[in-house]
Amino acid sequence: MISFCNPKPVANDMMTTATENAMAAIDKRMMGLLKLFSVRSVDINRRVINQGNDTLYDLFYGLQTYGISVGYLAAVSYFCWIISSTYDMSHRTYFAYLIRTFFVFVIVVSGNFAQAANQFIPAADHPTSYLPLLKGKRVGLVVNHSSTYRDSIHLVDFLLSKGIRVERIFAPEHGYLGKAGAGEKVEDSKDEQRQIPIVSLYGKKKKPSLEDMQGLDVVLFDIQDVGVRFYTYISTLTYVMDRAGEAGVPVIILDRPNPHRHYIDGPVLDTARFKSFVGLHPVPVVYGLTIGEYGAMVNGEGWIKHPCKLQVVYCKNYNPQERYRLPIPPSPNLPNHNAILLYPSLCFFEGAPVSVGRGTDKPFQIIGAPWFPFGDFYFTPKPREGAPQPLFADRRCRGYDLTNFAEDFLEDEPQLHLGWLISAYNAYKQTSNTAPFFRPFFDLLAGTDELRKSIEAGKDEGLISQEWLPQIARYTTIRAKYSHYD
What we know:
The structure is a single chain. By secondary structure, the chain is of the alpha/beta class. The protein has three domains: 13-117, no CATH class; 123-313, Rossmann fold (3-Layer(aba) Sandwich); 337-448, no CATH class. It has 16 helices and twelve strands. The strands form three sheets. A seven-stranded mixed sheet has the order 5-6-4-1-7-8-9, with helices on both faces. The protein has a three-stranded antiparallel sheet with strand order 10-12-11, with no helix packed on it. Strands 2-3 form a two-stranded antiparallel sheet. α3 (70-85) packs antiparallel against α4 (94-117).
């Protein structure tokens, strides 16, 4: 019989020494294995989470929510380690080593699982927060190619696999597949594989009709945004919420991160004079909210005629001050992180005779024109998917590649940069071109005519940026009411 409570000492000294050496060897080997395991355990646990084990994730998340820290388990484990270590070497048994090894294992696994569980999770990736809201209901989805479950399964497929009844799909600018060019009209269609009708909200209409809302019990919105006012997904959200409110259909937003969430900059839109689909609300160019927070602000501030019954499913463990790289390009001409960083500053050129690289492999990372008198970078835009009619198609342009600027400066010092725009305007005045540099679309992008007038008056970048600070201060007061993550 083996006694686990009071092991007998080994009488023979030689046997004691042999036991000590054997145990030390086991200790060393086990600690080596545990060290190796600890290096891999975060990846292993993350893989467990990513494979859909929401029960385990929610268990750890729930424990932390209620203040039950994994540290408690670690403390108990450490106490047991001390107890097992009090045995004299001559009294140790394999069972004592088993106790020690087990509790080291518990510390490593639980601690690293908690580390994995504490990582950022977008709303779509914790379905236990929204599937119960959809069960047994007829659902309309506002989605595109960025609407994925764990970056690999499209949300439509995931919901269908869970028995959710998807009645209708609404598609924003660039279409359901996210391949249409900027401003390119998209027709209604049908997902032939899934036999679901697709209503285009960037074709014959930008706002769903009351008829489109018939037969729906709820509308679910899940699209990756970039946090810039003239990026039209927030306009689509606004129109959907307004029509849903009129039809009495609730709206659920699955929140996603904003790569520009950590700062606010640019002129505030004058809704009395410059309201359009590239700007519907009195917010700065970079407004510092996720799309879920933004939807709550639009609904809460009464910026739509028919406020809806809105529920936002927020991200878990999202730190808005941390830089976030989107796993899927949100539209054809924002193919990477550098383009997203430069987009708020370069999009103003869409209202001027300057190419931002549409029709090249570096959209929103380069600027230039055939008339540019400066720059050491040359490119020739060509029609392609996502840019069927690029500015200056088949014409050689001179200008600048701003990729390094984005990587070296914008990541750590985010702000609008007007210097390129001012320099281009001044250079254009020296050419023989008679057409105006600023087109009417420029004021719609800026949300005001004050920016254009300031540049035409010869004001420098620093002075211009100071002019919109009072407006931003008023906006931040409104924003604070809907900032969930700060």
